[in-house]
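Support request, please re-run this one:
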Amino acid sequence: MKRSLAVNILLALTLLALVILVALPFYWVASGSFKLPQEIIARKPTFFPHSFTLQHYVKLLANSAYTTYVGNSLILRRVMLPLIAPGMASVAIFAFITSWTEYVFASVLIISDAKRTVPVGFAGIIGQYQIDWGLLLAGVVLAVAPVVIFFAFIGRWFVSGLTEGAVK
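Re-run finished. Output below.
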């Protein structure tokens, strides 16, 4: 089914308006980076910079990690890793606990008894009419121990990762 010319023009104008709506904030930020400080905070905004300047970029590069440290490996080791370590620790703990306690896919996809995950193994201990409580509780202790040990090593980064954005 072909659309009429009027519908195509209306659609094109609507898409153009959306592109302008999305691109305008990016242009505003980019053009503001080339304006003088007085022009940025002026009461009457300007769409184009009256006096083009690179002073913000010079100041940024002079104070950046690229000029402070030599090489990308030092930037990674001294700047980036300390900043992302709490978040990486939080993700590692969540991923470890999620994979350690996974039940649904393992119970459906794993057929071999030797390759069962811990929760699927616990489900095998629980029978229809009886439960071997001693075996089940011993298994729980052994299943929880790696999680507790893992959290003991990474716990301080986990807590700092959760509270990193909360402190001003």
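The chain has eight helices and no strands. Residues 1-63 form one domain.
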